[in-house]
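Ops channel
N.P.: pipeline sanity check, posting one input/output pair.
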């Protein structure tokens, strides 16, 4: 379906799961942080697309029209196609709706519960490769709540997913939740404050911190071995105390991590010795696999120094012949995995 929100100028409903915290924590859908979304909008103002559609995403966009028609036929209803973006009255948010159902619908969700939906609602179509594991995940919930916020008057939303493997529907129904919508509006307002003031979100990962927090490039360290902070240091005495505690936690964790790695290796070796030739075991709380894998014989890759060809032609030919004859023999090994059953 068409995308009507304009990146760089307004938020789209698909941005919402990444920029709206839930219980104080960001969801990081597909690994995307709020800063990633911020960078995407900033780059769009310069005409750069940091998140071009993959082939899988492109397939979803192209198949949605067919899914729309299939839904209408199978559920005997009319789904109106949006021809423009729907704008929130409360924040800079625009939803590109896949469809609108004006006259209600009775539909059964993926859990077997029947819903008699009255009046107007919105519908979002998706065509994942496989049946979704969590069709009512919070990321879906936030996106559909954002769409209801933009489609003023919508009290319900349907997420209709038709996976490409089984071609079966997975239907989820969401009711309007005013608390979530208020959280979305607040998050969108915060996002556009960052855009207008050219400020950033706090980093969500150490990798992100490495990229967005600039260093002072001072070659000499600031000496915080005493409580007397040197005049050039921007940190406070409270910062010093916090750093001491965090550094102790980090150092201790490194030691624990090292010991855990050693304990894990020791336990795995002991398990292998107990298993012997047995490859698969089911325990009350764990599944253990130590299965056999085989690799076929392969010729070694011949590497030739081309500069030798003119002076040592015969020697090079001999060298290549020897290396081509050097065959990597077939080998047999085993692969270990242990997973909890709960």
């Amino acid at each position: 379906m068409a995308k009507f929100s304009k990146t760089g100028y307004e938020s789209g409903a698909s941005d919402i799961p990444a920029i709206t915290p839930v219980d104080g924590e960001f969801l990081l859908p597909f690994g995307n942080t709020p800063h990633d979304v911020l960078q995407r909008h900033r780059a769009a103002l310069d005409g750069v697309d940091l998140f071009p559609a993959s082939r899988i995403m492109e397939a979803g966009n192209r198949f949605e029209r067919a899914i729309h028609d299939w839904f209408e036929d199978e559920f005997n209803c009319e789904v109106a196609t949006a021809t423009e973006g729907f704008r929130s009255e409360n924040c800079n948010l625009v939803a590109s709706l896949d469809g609108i159902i004006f006259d209600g619908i009775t539909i059964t969700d993926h859990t077997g519960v029947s819903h008699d939906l009255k009046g107007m609602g919105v519908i979002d179509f998706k065509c994942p490769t496989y049946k979704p594991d969590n069709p009512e995940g919070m990321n879906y919930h936030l996106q559909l709540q954002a769409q209801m916020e933009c489609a003023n008057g919508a009290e319900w939303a349907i997420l209709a997913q038709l996976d490409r493997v089984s071609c079966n529907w997975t239907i989820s129904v969401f009711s309007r939740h005013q608390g979530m919508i208020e959280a979305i509006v607040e998050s969108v307002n915060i996002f556009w404050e960052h855009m207008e003031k050219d400020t950033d979100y706090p980093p969500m990962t150490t990798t992100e911190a490495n990229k967005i927090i600039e260093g002072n490039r001072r070659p000499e360290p600031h000496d915080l071995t005493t409580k007397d902070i040197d005049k050039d240091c921007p940190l406070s005495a409270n910062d010093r105390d916090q750093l001491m505690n965090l550094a102790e936690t980090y150092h201790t964790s490194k030691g624990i991590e090292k010991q855990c790695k050693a304990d894990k290796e020791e336990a795995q070796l002991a398990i292998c010795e107990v298993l012997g030739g047995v490859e698969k075991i089911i325990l009350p709380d764990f599944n253990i696999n130590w299965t056999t894998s085989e690799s076929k014989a392969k010729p070694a890759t011949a590497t030739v120094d081309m500069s030798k060809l003119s002076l040592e032609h015969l020697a090079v030919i001999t060298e290549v012949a020897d290396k081509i004859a050097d065959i990597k023999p077939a080998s047999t090994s085993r692969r270990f995995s242990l997973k909890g059953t709960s």
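N.P.: looks fine end to end. The helical segments are 16-19, 34-45, 55-75, 138-150, 178-197, 206-212, 237-275, 313-325.
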